[in-house]
Each structure stands twice: as structure tokens, then as C-alpha cells.
Model the fold of this input.
Amino acid sequence: MSRTVLARDPLDAIGDVADGATVMIGGFGPAGQPVDLVEALLEQGATGLVVVSNNAGNGEDPLARLIRDGRVARMVCSFPRQVDSWHFDAAYRSGAVELELVPQGNLAERIRAAGAGIGAFYTPTGYGTPLAEGKEHRRIDGVDHVLEYPIHADLALVRADRADGAGNLVYRKTARNFGPVMAAAARRTVAQVREVVPTGALDPEAVVTPGIYVDAVVEVAAPLPARTTEARA
Amino acid sequence: MSRTVLARDPLDAIGDVADGATVMIGGFGPAGQPVDLVEALLEQGATGLVVVSNNAGNGEDPLARLIRDGRVARMVCSFPRQVDSWHFDAAYRSGAVELELVPQGNLAERIRAAGAGIGAFYTPTGYGTPLAEGKEHRRIDGVDHVLEYPIHADLALVRADRADGAGNLVYRKTARNFGPVMAAAARRTVAQVREVVPTGALDPEAVVTPGIYVDAVVEVAAPLPARTTEARA
Amino acid sequence: MTHLHDARPAAATAPLSKTQIAARVAADIAPGSYVNLGIGLPTLVADHLAPGSGVTLHTENGMLGMGPAPDPDDVDPDLVNAGKIPVTELPGASYFHQADSFAMMRGGHIDVCVLGAFQVSATGDLANWSTGEPGAVPAVGGAMDLAVGARRTVVTMTLLTKDGSPKLVERCTLPLTGVGCVSRVYTDLAVLDVGPDGARVVETFGTTHDELETLLGLTLGRTS
Amino acid sequence: MTHLHDARPAAATAPLSKTQIAARVAADIAPGSYVNLGIGLPTLVADHLAPGSGVTLHTENGMLGMGPAPDPDDVDPDLVNAGKIPVTELPGASYFHQADSFAMMRGGHIDVCVLGAFQVSATGDLANWSTGEPGAVPAVGGAMDLAVGARRTVVTMTLLTKDGSPKLVERCTLPLTGVGCVSRVYTDLAVLDVGPDGARVVETFGTTHDELETLLGLTLGRTS
Done:
């Protein structure tokens, strides 16, 4: 059932990624970050990427190194600044990376809108703030709203706990975060999971991401540490 | 934890319902219909109701009898016409009930928007059809969209399989349908469940409707049949 | 897309039965597709999907991985399809609420949606929810979402009404379900592609291209 | 709302410590409330909620029923709060994805949201995400959603900056987080209500109404 592919390894799973592609990367800080898939993206070599992710890398994790290596032209995120986001900070200050700062709820809802076929929506979030400057707005039932558009992607990289052969995913605790909405918003979705179980082994009532949203799954029983520090010397 | 109330019986659960209230009723035909809560609404007596529900009653079920008894001023639904929707058909033809016919996906998304704080959204569904006449539209990325507004309610009546003491709900199979979005869209939500289990007995990963959306729960171990035919002696 | 009609030459020399139309639709559905089947004739398509085709059925009332009707003893009132008919659950199935289910449809994730129709226009407009009779109780269900949401929307219908009027028309006279949403029409007499460039004959059954043009009063293109 | 400050007369004669501010906020939270606590000072409020109060904590990264920090041995990297700090799960908890979590916040389902602030205006405008320094790396997170989404948004802060400038101001000079979204401000020197009619003193700590007006350069109303 389904056409979800079980990949041999993360590099096989991500496949061809074109220069200039828009890539969504799940996770909220380290929780739910598909570290091995982003490491594979580093290895794969695509450049000029637009990355949609809540944060912009921690320490020497693979997303931070994508930025360090000049592979990211633009970040769309809500909270790039972290105590250890030195690579993003430097790239932002030098102008090497462009930033679209999006309130986190708008980020989540715009990604959800892309997956759900919504053309645009009105939200009160951000009205009257610098982040809504230049955006259309209208008053609805006495409340000022801003018009926000969906965020689509070419590729979504997400991390879940388990997948079955149909590509259904279940997550673990707050590592669920952006995975389900990103999986639905991208033309192609790749999931890194702790374990692949036989089709039929997941409770259909508890499936969070139905397999229709998942193109490839790769089992990574022992993921890279979330804040990988690259060996130096 | 939480302030969800465990009610003694369905009438106690629905509480005071004002004349003219907007009431959402879950279910897709008989599946997931909160029959005992609607029966309680019949008994409670509120009139001039606006009912939001996918269908408009089957046979002599309590929703059909609400309509028969002139208690419903307006139906908002996608598919009122059923082989056995004689009470709605008669009320519609006589002008006793007003109908707002909404494409089912718009119905679900407008209800979802109410719960999610979305002021309005653009969707391609319905563009160029009689159901979009008089509505605002705009072309986004080459596709014509219609502007749709949220549907809020004073009360939502839903049916789930199990609840815990915190008001968390899980559903059963396709009886889930409108329950989760309606629970979030109403100022007050009442759930009829087959079984109430102790808080902590539901898997937090598998909760479908978090207790924050549920104001009262009533256990109905043996619900009324879905297409109740009233005794006519 | 696999065109299996070459394997069934009989079909080309006579009009197709409803079962044959359903089989013809099924033959065009790529293995591994996610498919939504409308109520009525489209439902028959499920019977013609090869077991190994890996096609997954979506039902808009909240399920992926829908299986066939249950044995009468195993009917579960909580497990029904969009026509409110009891169905079953296949391994790998999942349940979701109505907004998530329509998001799946409206977001373009369903590969093929098969619908019935009262009329389809040469440019792909669809009319399938209302006969426009005054006083009739209207009902639309998911028709408008299904029509415009799927990656590919196809229609199964007889080419003519019972009184012989064409259902494939220059312009729909009945209330529309969607504008320019239909790609292909499977009928008893022909398979036709419709779209911005008008209708084109893909295949005929017991009739000819010229006869079809006369019958429909339309100029029809040819697929090369 | 229960005003427990009558039970703590000492608080009225001296400025409050951060712990006392947190306790004062907690005293205003009705039993059974659903509450979201911002990063920093607001987080301390959790320590002052009575165990039997039935308050449920929401964290916008996808959880209701958040518990306190785990023992160091029980840290789970998949279970963190909005500040990415390890937390625990209480009985009755539930998990959901980011869009559902913000829908919960933005849809007005959270009773109280407690936030920190750089500035609050007398009419309830909030500035808490950017110091406006040129060249600084900006970051907003969920601040704007939290500010306007909750049924009631309150702020905890010291009333003055380290160099003695008021943080409660006629009009915010820093980039706004939300317009007219704050209802009440809890500070070391006073609790004040803010809104369309301007700021009103609810309670003072070690200062007087007149002294506050001088300190802030604002005319302050009185709650009757």
C-alpha cells in the first residue's frame, strides 16, 4: 500500500535537491530536528537554499554548518537568535543570509495553509508591528487582521518516532512540533524515524501524519547528537 | 486538573441553552451523532436555534424532531437532503427553516477557523458556483479564490468514544468527523462518551481533542439508536 | 498511466457497460495512487483496482486506507464511507477529522478523484450537485471540494441523458460544481479529455469520432 | 479572581521581589485556568500555583499539562518547554503539533498568558521582542501570537529599567509586539490595569499613588 519508499540511508532518502530549493526542516531547537537528514543535505551539496525552520541552527549542528558554508540564501524562521547561533549571527550581520522573520504562530499556520490548499488567511497576529509592515490588513468584527500567505516547499525533512510501511508517522512528545504541518506543505517529504514497524502495527486512531504526506522514510536507530560539534583539528 | 465537569445525565450536561443560540451538532449522518445530547436539547426547550451540522436529520432522530417541532430557525449544513430527511424537506419547502448550504470542506474549514482565531480565509472551493454568489473573491497565483468567514457557535454537542477526567477525548473510526473542530469552535462544548476513564488513562500522544475544548462530559454507555423512530402509539 | 484497453478489443466495438466504464477508469490509475471515489458509478472503480496495485482509497469523512464493504455481521456504525455505507479498514489505515480530511483533498494530495456528473463542459467545467429544479431541496456535500482539490479530477457518466441529450456540452446549463476542474470524462461511448483547448477524443466504444461530433454537436479534437 | 494580597500585608509596605511578583500573579489566576507562561520571570509563576488549583499549563511548542523540571536523570530531549528547557508530563497531558498548538492560543482558548516586557503602554500596547538596536539579530518566537491570542494577557516586569526609566509609558518607543493586548501589569512597585481608558493603579508596594504618577510621568486612575 502507498508509494512511500524505504530508503537505505539519509543520503538516499533526500535524493536530488536542486540549487535554490525551498527546504523545510522540522524541529523546535534540538527536539524533533532531523539531524541525520540535514547532515545528508550538507553532503548532498545543493546551494542557494531557502530554509524554513523555527530556528537557525545551534552550535555546530548541521543546519548551522549549512549556513556557515554559505549554502543558505534565505532563512524563514521565528527565532534565529540562540545563545549558540554564532554561524547564523555572523552570516546575518555580513549580509550572506537574508532573513524573513515570522511570528511562530503565523509560521505554523502559513505552513499548514500550504498543505491545506488555503490561498491566504487573515490573522490578528502581528497587526501594528514592524513584522506586518507593508502587508494588507482589514478590520473584521472590530479586530484588525493581517493577510498572510501560505509557505510551500520543495522538500520537507522531518523527524518522527516510528513509521510503518505505508509511511504513516507517529511522533514523540514535544518533538512532534512542526513535523506534521511541514510534511503536508512540501512537494516531497522525507522522514527520519527511530524505527520502521510493519504496516498495520500503528494504531490507525493514533497516526499523526498519514502516509500520503510521506515520500521516503529512513530508519536511523542511533541519530547524530542534536548539537553536533564538528571535530576541529 | 482542568475545569471540565462530569455531568450526571445529558440534560444536566447541556445546561441552559438560550433561545436563538447557535448549536453545532457533530456527526456525519448517524456516525458520531451525539443522539442523547440532541434528545436532551429537545427536552430542554430552547427555540429559534441556528443549527450547524453536516446533515439535517434522518427519519425521526432527535435533530429531525427539533426541525419538525419548529425549534430550528436556520440550518447551516452541506447535505440536508437524505432519503429520510422528510422533516427537514417539509420545513424547507414551507419556509419554516432557512438554509445556508455550505460545501463540506468549507464547512469544516470555517468551523476550524473559528476555533483557531482565523478572521477569514481564501479557498478555491465554490468559485464560479451559485454557492459563492455575492462573496468576495480574488485571484491568487493564477487560481480564483473565494473569501470565507469562520462559523462560531454558542454550544457544540459532540460524541466521542472515551473521555478522561481532564476532558480529553478520543473518538472511534469515522465517527471522529466534525467532533474535534466543533469542540474548538464553540463557547461551550459538551461531549457524550461511551466511557469515562481516569485521568492519565489516555495516551497523551493519542488524545484527539484536548480537554481545554471540553466543558462537560456525560457518560452514555448505551446511547439511543441513531435513527430513533419515535413511538407514535 | 497504463492503457489496458488494448487488451480488451471487445470494448472498442460496442458501448461500455457501467462495469466496463469502471474498469476503464481503474486501468488509468497509476499504482500507488491515492484515490477518492464519488458516490454511485465511481464507487464501482474500487472493484477493478488490482489487489497489488497499491492504490489507497480516501474517504472525505475522515479516513485513508478504506477497504470494501464488511460482511453483514461485521457492520460497524462508526465506520462508513462518504455515502454513509459501511466499509472496512485495511492495514496501514488512518483516521482524521473532517477539516484535516478536506485539507488533504483541498491541498492537492489526492492523485485522482473520480466523480459522477450531470454535465461536463468541453473546457472541464463540472455540474454534478444540482438539477436546478425549483423547490428541490439542495445538497452539495463534498462535491465542490473534491472537484477542485484533487491533482486530477475525472468523471464517469453515460454520455447521454435518458432522453438522449448530451451530457458533454459546450457550456453547462446546470448550476456549476467547479470551473475547469475536470481533466477526463469516461463514458459508455467514449473517453474524452477536456480542458482549456476543448474536448478531444481519446477512445471510442461502438461509435466513431464523426458520429460523436454529430451526437454532441461539438467539434472534437483528436489525441495524437 | 481571588486577590490574596490581603493575606500578605508585608507586600504592601515594600517593593516586591521577583518571587513575590510571581506569587502575586499566581494569586490572580482562577482555579481550573489554562495558562501559558512566557520565558523568564513569568516561568516563576508556576512555583506559586497551589497544587489543588487545577491550573493546566500550555506550552506553545505542543503540549497541555506541562509539569515541572525533571530530575537530572530523567531529562528527555523530546520533552521541552518553549524556552527549550526540559520539563515533565502530568497525568491528563496531551501533545499536538505546532499549528494546533497556536490555534489553541490564537483561538482564545488560553485563559491567561503571562509575559515579560520591555515596555507596556497605558493603553495596553506591548513591546517585548526587540530592543530595536541596529545590527542586533532579531527573533520573535511566539511572542506576537501569545500577546494577542489569550483571553487575558498580563505582564510581569520591574517597573523601571536598570537605569531608572519607566517601562510603563504613555506610548511604546520600542518595536511593538501587539496593540492594546495587555490587561494588567504586575511589577515590583505596583499592580496596574491598562487599557483603552489608560492605566489605573490596583495596588502599590512600598510606594504611593502620587509617587507612582511622578515616577512614571503619567496620570493614573484609581480602581474603586
